[in-house]
Amino acid sequence: MEKYNVIGTMSGTSLDGLDIADCTFTLNEGKWAYKINHAQTFKYPTEVKNALISCRNFNSLDFLSFHNSYGCYIGKKINAFAKSNKSEFNLIASHGHTVFHMPERRLTYQIGNGAYIASETGITTISDFRTFDVALGGQGAPLVPIGDELLFHNYQYCLNLGGFSNVSYREKNIRKAFDICPVNIVINHYTQMLGKEFDKNGNIAKKGKINEVLLSELNQLEFYRKKNPKSLGKEWLDEIFIPLINQYEISIADKMRTIYEHISIQIANVLKGGNTLVTGGGAYNSFLIKLIQEKATSEIIIPDKKTIEFKEALIFAFLGVLRYRNEINCLSSVTGAKRNNIGGVIHLLPHMLTEFRKLSNLL
Fold first, then answer.
1. What CATH number is associated with residue 327?
2. Do the Cβ atoms of 51 and 66 come closer than 8 Å?
3. Whole domain around residue 202: which residue ranges?
4. Can you list the pairs that 194-202 forms with residues at least 24 positions away whose Cβ atoms lie under 8 Å?
5. How confident is the model over 40-70, as pLDDT tens digits?
6. pLDDT tens figures, 263-322
7. How many domains does the structure of the chain reveal?
8. Each residue of 16-25: b (16+ CB within 10 Å) or e?
9. Distance (Å, rounded) from C-alpha 89 to C-alpha 200?
């Protein structure tokens, strides 16, 4: 049996905070198993959150400087997390925070320099998981499906309700996955106009009425007619989705109720039979879950709190293990790349060099 103790980090588009998960992975007779030992979300200070939002508009020098300083920030939070939980690990896998994602222009960028994480923690760090796939003509997303395939194979569908919703499933022995529609990122956008951070259990949306004309326009957006694989980014939200909604002079509650209906329709269009594991912050939104349950023909399963909140951090930790083992961690069947690939840049500390060479079959 092989065993790996790894820290995984994730910062999602909804900007809730930095997720850190202390994970153990074991490989026994070709089968992977996992355990989330400890996990925590570090809520972003206002200045960090604002910088993550606005850094896309920084000049080049300030952008690179923030890329490094945010890496230091991640490293310091990992150190604090490890000290608090007495975590023992020998590898860090950090997704960073997506600032640009335009695969049609062969461009993606996750901020949070892995070299500075490694420098801050003294632990070998793997980062920049998406760029190689985009270079190979892929979407660079979603990356989670390889984890769904190897760790969560008991479910027909794995649905993440984060800033955007994405789904992973197996069809004719091939893993398929794609982004479905925006969720928390657009819900939070309108909720914050009312001075609230998020729409707890859909309480604001419940008070609104569906605008059928807006709903029809949202459902007819070109993205939903695209063939898979496909992915969404904040650029699409800012340039297409939100401007369309803002053309309608209706209450925020009505906008939100219409958005909820749109989300549930798009998700239900995908979930056909079997069972569905639902994770991400949206799993706590009882009104949204109710709407999805009413429309979908798949059994909706809400797991334990750690899995809901930290599945993505867990799987990025796992992607780091696969990268460290020089094994495929990105599937062309879900990203559209020319071939399966091994993504991630390794910032290797000297004390890990011998072990890495053994894994790489170089000794």
1. 3.30.420.40
2. yes
3. 157-297
4. 194/252, 198/281, 199/256, 199/285, 200/285, 201/284, 201/285, 201/286, 201/287, 202/260, 202/285, 202/286, 202/287, 202/288
5. 999 999 999 999 999 999 999 999 999 999 9
6. 999 999 999 999 999 999 999 999 999 999 999 999 999 999 999 999 999 999 999 999
7. 2
8. bbbbbbbbbb
9. 36
